[in-house]
Amino acid sequence: MRAIVPLLLALSLPLSAAPLHSQFLPPDDLSLRQSAPVGQQLLQVTDYSVVVGTQRQSDQQPIPITSSLQMRLKGKPLSKGSTIAQVLINFDGEGGKSLKKPSYDDKSRTLTLNYPMANYRVIMDLLRNETLYVQFLTYGNGHIWADLHTGTVRTR
């Protein structure tokens, strides 16, 4: 019985080193995630909307017309202390250009992600067919990780 008590205590302690859903992180080949994250936002997506917009600024010559594609995800926060209310995904049509880094705004409780346009179809397919999660991790060394992932899916 004495041997079981330490084992039960060890099993009941929180695993503070590993964030929820850490099994979905890719290998850390560059050793950027050397320590435990200092913050995690984890959301299970329950609703989404897609906005395709266009604008014309009539005070400029020649008159530029820009178009945007944005997805808004909402759901339920899953990580302890998570305050995330929504995720905005901006799709960039210029594939060769650098994307803006993920950012989280505490005031609006909004996570903003940027993906190339080529990822739009993949994300829509996941939204339609799987349970989707959004994860945002921040590390003490300034490293930021954000992803969209499914849970473990059994093959059919």
Note the topology.
Elements: H1 4-12, E1 39-56, E2 65-77, E3 86-92, E4 103-105, E5 110-116, H2 120-129, E6 132-138, E7 144-150
Parallel strand pairs: 3-5
Antiparallel strand pairs: 1-2, 1-6, 2-3, 4-5, 6-7
Q: Can you tell me the number of structural domains?
A: 1
**Which stretches are low in confidence, meaning pLDDT under 50 for 5 or more residues running?**
1-17
How many helices does DSSP assign? 2
Query: How big is the Rg?
Result: 20 Å
**H/E element string?**
HEEEEEHEE
* Percentage beta strand: 35-45%
Overview of this structure, please?
The protein has 156 residues and is mainly beta. The protein has one domain (36-54, 63-156). It has 2 helices and 7 strands, in the order αβββββαββ. The chain has helices spanning 4-12, 120-129; strands spanning 39-56, 65-77, 86-92, 103-105, 110-116, 132-138, 144-150. Strands 4-5-3-2-1-6-7 form a 7-stranded mixed β-sheet, covered by helices on one side. Strand 1 and strand 2 (65-77) form a beta hairpin. The longest helix has 10 residues, at 120-129.
